[in-house]
Amino acid sequence: MRPSHRINSSSGSVKQYCLWKGRFYYQRSFFSGHTSTMFLIFLCLPNRVDKLLALIATLLVGSMVLIQHVHYSIDVLAAPLFTWCCFWLGREIALSGWYKAAHLALAKEKVGVRVVTTELRKL
Question: Which residue, 27, 29, 31, 114, is the most exposed by fewest CB within 10 angstroms?
Answer without folding.
Answer: 114
